[in-house]
UniProtKB/TrEMBL annotation, chain A:
Residues 135-145 have a biased composition (Basic and acidic residues). It comes from Bradyrhizobium nanningense. The lineage of its organism: Bacteria, Pseudomonadati, Pseudomonadota, Alphaproteobacteria, Hyphomicrobiales. Residues 135-161 are annotated as: Disordered. This is Cyclase dehydrase.
TrEMBL record, chain B:
It comes from Bradyrhizobium nanningense. Residues 197-269 form the Alcohol dehydrogenase-like C-terminal domain. Keywords: Metal-binding, Oxidoreductase, Zinc. The keyword Transport does not apply. This is Alcohol dehydrogenase. CDD domains: FDH_like_1.
Amino acid sequence: MFHFSNIVRTKGDPKIVQGGPSLKQPADQLARALGWFSIGLGVVEFLAPRRVTETLGMEGHETLVRAFGVREILAGIMSLSVEKNAGLWARVGGDGLDAAALLSGLTPDNPKNGNIALALLMVGGIAMLDYRAAQDTKPRRPPRDARRKLYPNRSGFPKGIESVRTAARQIAAHAGQNEVKQGDERRVP
Amino acid sequence: MKALVWHGKEDIRCDTVTDPEIQDPRDAIIKVTSCAICGSDLHLFHNFIPGMLPGDIMGHETMGEVVEVGSGVDGKLQKGDRIVVPFTIICGECDQCKRGNFSVCETTNRKRHLADKVFGHTTAGLFGYTHLTGGYPGGQAEYLRVPYADATHIKVPAGIPDEQLLFLSDIFPTGWQAAVQCDIEPTDTVAIWGCGPVGQMAIRSALLLGANQVIAIDCLPERLSMAEAGGATTINFETESVLERLQELTDGKGPEKCIDCVGMESHVMASLPDTLLDRAKQMVMAESDRPHVLREMIYVCRPGGIISVAGVYSGLSDMLPMGAFMNKGLTMRTGQTHVNRWTDDLLRRIEDGEIDPSFVITHTVPLEQGPEMYQVFRDKRDSCVKVVLKP
């Protein structure tokens, strides 16, 4: 990858000779893959809802499929963002909705029950991946009640805060006197 | 040499790269002795600022020793000189530089066509930043090429540790300029949003400039404790109402001067619906900045007051209350820092022992640990406030 980035460097600027290790974890890569999958699926659901409902024998539910498509796209964008953990949990929730919608179509008179069963299987598999990725990308921020170091002695003023305040007051008073003096001079005819 | 290189969102690596070379007679090369991670580096880490390319070297807070000078540096720098490198690259000759408006130097952005398109006019070239500001390799590295080195440097004396001088490159003059822009008077209350490194410097600067009362707003106990140590009254916005406390502390009048040291990534909280909406819009790229702090400042600032913006904004901000801003007769002053305008005075204050900016450093690690420290700094782990890297 860095070979490509070297091509676009301005002539004379340092180029990468040897890449260092990346801190990206496998879970980050999984989150990225799921994010793009989510967007792809969402686009299909939004643009071709009829194909989806026909495949599942659930004609008449096109609006619902479209809405699910929008949800998939938003969850996908979130999964690709800095807030990927929230995006992945949104996907886990969405998987639940998908499963519920599919189960509602699993009726004795639906000739496409086989497709619905297959879709349910896929949703189950993806849900496991979503859950795993969501678990593994938990933010590493310390909890709110975590013990923290405090810095009560770091004033940054080697001579103390009071000396700063005193100096500032003296400068202000001096400036004030000068202003008065200049004002008096201006009043002199 | 080793350098911290941007490879994409949340992906910074310590790579081996070719050494920098003199490209222009006005260049110099320095051996970096200390560099730091800045809060604005996190905007790049998150890929919120457009115009980064994989392979870009990070870092714009750097100092070191001159090891090579170009023929056009004209004796202003010599091998062995110890310099702090301001984050803004300046020519010292254009109309803006002559006015002291160094951060909008008209010459040094080598990709000015991009800046002209995006900002309307170019601004100065910056180290280790987006290609909108020239895409110059940064100083989180063992060596750094300093373009226009005859003007772009702050010569510093031996005998003062790096840690006291390094922040002349950015955060100290940035906090200082934020306070100077407020025209502080002895009766003023100055409210400062954000107690990160720039906020801490702004607190001290406001006191040095004679503010009557400084109020610092944040939610992290370690940063609030540091703000308090620096003489500020603190407000924890997670446990207190900022509006109510500011009213209380100013007899209902509001602070005369407000400083934004937060910028485009303000905290998101369920109790502040505008922050949730901003975050959602930022995620789908419908808005580039989260300007909650600007909205709050406009609302609480005393009529006729001044709002000074030191925090970085990158593009478009929604729902700014321009009605309140206009009717209250507020003044807003902003800008990247005109570093060299302030550094003579600030260096003298450090030499005189008036201030020691090293108080803000909480972590010092080898350069190789830089990528991890980006995460630690971002996540506020281990009570991290400021990271210094040693190549």
